[in-house]
From TrEMBL:
<dbReference type="Pfam" id="PF00324">
    <property type="entry name" value="AA_permease"/>
</dbReference>
<dbReference type="GO" id="GO:0016020">
    <property type="term" value="C:membrane"/>
</dbReference>
<dbReference type="GO" id="GO:0015171">
    <property type="term" value="F:amino acid transmembrane transporter activity"/>
</dbReference>
<dbReference type="InterPro" id="IPR004841">
    <property type="entry name" value="AA-permease/SLC12A_dom"/>
</dbReference>
<feature type="transmembrane region" description="Helical">
    <location>
        <begin position="56"/>
        <end position="81"/>
    </location>
</feature>
<feature type="transmembrane region" description="Helical">
    <location>
        <begin position="12"/>
        <end position="36"/>
    </location>
</feature>
<keyword id="KW-0812">Transmembrane</keyword>
<protein>
    <recommendedName>
        <fullName>Amino acid permease/ SLC12A domain-containing protein</fullName>
    </recommendedName>
</protein>
<keyword id="KW-1133">Transmembrane helix</keyword>
<feature type="transmembrane region" description="Helical">
    <location>
        <begin position="87"/>
        <end position="107"/>
    </location>
</feature>
<dbReference type="InterPro" id="IPR050524">
    <property type="entry name" value="APC_YAT"/>
</dbReference>
<feature type="domain" description="Amino acid permease/ SLC12A">
    <location>
        <begin position="5"/>
        <end position="115"/>
    </location>
</feature>
<keyword id="KW-0472">Membrane</keyword>
Length: 167
């Protein structure tokens, strides 16, 4: 019985650490998306020509990046409830934040990297060499063709656009 209890305890701590690291990864993705959209707007790149556009654009990223730190802080909140503070549980549940910050700051210090300004970010390398006008004409023609060949009603088209956002 004691082996099963200790195994369950290890599983809970491991799950908590994985959750913290998952939230930190998503926080990094959101911050990268915000920086990309900022560079895109500063350099005047039209978001219509981006292959995938995030739902709710940068607003969704800002809202999520404000909400995720609240989740990170409250993950270990149950150790504060009750009459006894369990420091071991608190450390195990919050160790991911310290490890993440140590790795990130250690890399920044060792590699001596700095943040790229939105004006200096390279958004052109690797982009096909067709002109904006050709791309815009191709995009509009494909949209018109989709509308002509698609017999669905207005609401069905809206539903087909909504469903991919859910998954």
């Amino acid at each position: 019985m004691s082996v099963a209890a200790s195994g369950a305890k290890v599983f809970v701590h491991l799950t908590s650490c994985v959750t913290v690291f998952g939230l930190l990864v998503w926080m990094s993705i959101l911050l990268c998306h915000i920086a990309f959209r900022r560079a895109q707007s500063v350099q005047g790149v039209d978001p219509v020509y981006i292959a995938y556009r995030a739902p709710f654009s940068s607003v969704g990223s800002y809202i999520s990046s404000d909400f995720l730190p609240v989740l990170l802080i409250t993950i270990g909140a149950e150790v504060f409830v009750g009459d006894q503070f369990n420091y071991q549980t608190f450390i195990l549940e919050q160790i991911g934040i310290s490890v993440y910050l140590a790795l990130y700051l250690g890399y920044k210090f060792a590699a001596k990297t700095s943040y790229a300004r939105a004006v200096d970010v390279d958004l052109i390398t690797g982009v096909p060499a067709i002109t904006i006008a050709e791309e815009k004409a191709r995009y509009e023609a494909s949209q018109k063709e989709k509308e002509e060949t698609n017999p669905h009603t207005y609401w069905a088209r809206k539903l087909y656009r909504l469903v991919p956002w859910l998954f």
